């Protein structure tokens, strides 16, 4: 999305970052779905729906903010990067 107005561009950027953060929040609360008082099938369905919604929200935000920025965010906060960071801290 190309915007000529700098204020509008700033609003798009804030909305895009908010969408990306919201997708990470959805992933962060997924493990707590096991505590819900529903059957296993219902919990599995809720978790699956949350995963799909989280991915859609992430990619909509990514399209709004730009591909390069989105890939940097995804790489920086991936599980592999976090695990490697924890391993490096233990070795020190």
TrEMBL record:
| Matches recorded under InterPro entries | Transp_suffix-like
For this UniProt record, give its keywords in alphabetical order, as a comma-separated list. Membrane, Transmembrane, Transmembrane helix
Q: Which residues cross the membrane?
A: 12-30, 36-66
Q: Does the keyword Membrane apply?
A: yes
Lineage, top-rank taxon, reads: Bacteria
Name of the protein in question: Transporter suffix domain-containing protein
Task: Look up and give the organism this protein is from.
Answer: Lacrimispora xylanisolvens
